[in-house]
Amino acid sequence: MVVGESGRSGGAARSRGTDAATQAATAELERLFDLSLELLCIAGTDGYFKRVNPAFERLLGYSTETLLTKPFLDFIHPDDVEDTRREIQRLSEGVPTVYFENRYVRRDGSVCWLAWSCAPDTKAGLLYAAARDVSQQKQAEHAQEVYRRRLRSLASELLLVEERERHRLAVDLHDGLDQLITLVRMRLTEIRQAPGPPAPEALAELEQLVDQANQSARSLTFQLSPPLLHDLGLEPAVQWLAEDLERQYGLQIELDDDGEPKIAGERLRFIFFRSIRELLVNVFKHARTKRAVVRLRRDGALLRVDVEDDGVGFDVQSVQASASYGLFSIRERLTSLGGAMIVESAPGEGTRVALMAPLPGPQDDEGSDAESDADGVRESAP
């Protein structure tokens, strides 16, 4: 059969058209390959990259030449090399990778997490892979896990603290109030059994013992839940606390109140009072000083309390990293109010702890705590 000139020219034109379309599609794919924010590559089962897109250079810091001339296992974190070998073995057997994570070491020595998906071509010995940087996600997961561990530790420590407090109260009751009541009963028995009217000295001693028992009961009541805190507010309760801690520990506490009204809800009063008490007890236990200052301020719609001492101080980052029960629990309480805690200290330079939380507005109930300024408070925390 003879093919005419017109037939040959038509076939050639179609061929040129197909070639042009293929070249255009190839150029589009090349542009997508180069512009992709994801890491795209072709690797071999021999352990070398055959081609990488520019995202590799941007993320890892190595030149394309370096990436192509060194085994890709050289760029992987040592702890993840064996897992990566096993995944490459699975790929060489024709099993695609749906999701696989490993760590790469950047040129500057930092580490990043990559999440891979990969399709193998077993005949050609090639791996077509895409990866994305999931370092921020892994950091967030790690932070959440640390936070969960700290919460579990807090819950465990809280039980221990409650048990210690019960034991302390039981000892106080036994050694103080219980013994005073027993002594009163003994003196009453002696008075009843003595002939004639009771001697004035015996009645005076009895009255003194009753006064001591009453004082002991009042002290225990204040330690459990100070009536001043419920009836008169935070400032009078803190004033009583300063006097009580001076009696117990010899700690001289200066109370500096700006005189502005601080009408706080019950929950806010309770949390601030407990936090102040815990911080002052910490001064006695750890600061190696006998002086402290408590400053109460109203800062707009915020209640702010600063507890300061001139003691030995400490490294803030080290204490926070150690998941200190006291500071962590105070921070969590304030966070529940939409508030924040800022700790400033350094070895040999004393300590200042600022507690902040929004005061309830006119529209809020007495027992509630305002959330309107919560975002502003959180932004102020480091």
Question: How would you describe this protein?
Answer:
This protein has 3 domains: 14-133, PAS domain (Beta-Lactamase), CATH 3.30.450; 136-224; 226-382, Heat Shock Protein 90 (2-Layer Sandwich). Helix content is 54%, strand content 20%. It contains 12 helices and 10 strands. The protein has helices at 5-35, 54-60, 64-69, 81-92, 135-193, 200-224, 227-231, 234-249, 266-287, 316-321, 325-336, 374-380; strands at residues 39-44, 49-52, 97-105, 111-121, 126-133, 252-257, 291-299, 302-309, 340-345, 351-358. The chain has a 5-stranded antiparallel β-sheet, with helices on both faces. It has a 5-stranded mixed β-sheet with strand order 6-7-8-10-9, sandwiched between helices. Helix 5 runs antiparallel to helix 6 and helix 9 (266-287) packs antiparallel against helix 11. The protein is elongated. Mean pLDDT is 82; it is low at 365-382.
